[in-house]
């Protein structure tokens, strides 16, 4: 099916429309063999609140961006190679339903579909694309993933020292290794995580100690990748702000 669509005029036209929606700021998406599998709006769990994002699934990449004008204009384009992607379902809780984790070595986050059927279709298509890519390349699935950030709303105090209360002056920071919300004094260290950045990034003292002694996987054990403790934020609280997890803190 994918091979048959790869060189079709309809597929070329659809990809061209996506390119035009992102404008000059977006990267070119048309390459030989690339097929647009599907598209839709998903709610992406960002640092401060859930936000609506437009997603496009191709046979080799996942693309998403901010919605400026629905079906006409998007910005802040993100491109994720599917070879590096693994996905895990998230249990429903409160307003956050029909969700799953998209995990990569550089960035991991949760998304939510409008219905259970839509979630199932997205996950099945993503898994099929990843499986086909790995089969063709002979590569093995990625076993290293960036931490999923705990949203700001989940922590009124530092998740490490359990003492420092967050205020407009005492700001929240995120450890790039475990994803915990931590205070400044608990995250003064920097450590090189090559999959995430070419420069040392902020990590909490707990993860720094483990990384320094070579116990690199242990600092993930305190927080399950299943993301069973879903945030209680309202899905209706959506803005057009930039993705918060791309900030320096």
TrEMBL record:
Keywords: Endoplasmic reticulum, Endosome, Membrane, Metal-binding, Protein transport, Transport, Zinc, Zinc-finger. Residues 221-232 have a biased composition (Polar residues). It holds the Pfam family FYVE. It comes from the Eukaryota. InterPro entries: PH-like_dom_sf (IPR011993), PH_domain (IPR001849), PH_domain-containing_F (IPR051765), PH_Phafin (IPR037871), PLEKHF2_FYVE (IPR047966), Znf_FYVE (IPR000306), Znf_FYVE-rel (IPR017455), Znf_FYVE_PHD (IPR011011). It is a peripheral membrane protein. Residues 238-249 have a biased composition (Acidic residues). The keyword Transport applies. One of its GO terms (cellular component) is endoplasmic reticulum. One of its GO terms (biological process) is protein transport. It is found in: Early endosome membrane; Endoplasmic reticulum. Residues 152-212 form the FYVE-type domain. GO terms for molecular function: phosphatidylinositol binding; zinc ion binding. Residues 221-249 are annotated as: Disordered. Residues 35-131 form the PH domain. May play a role in early endosome fusion upstream of RAB5, hence regulating receptor trafficking and fluid-phase transport. Enhances cellular sensitivity to TNF-induced apoptosis. This is Pleckstrin homology domain-containing family F member 2.
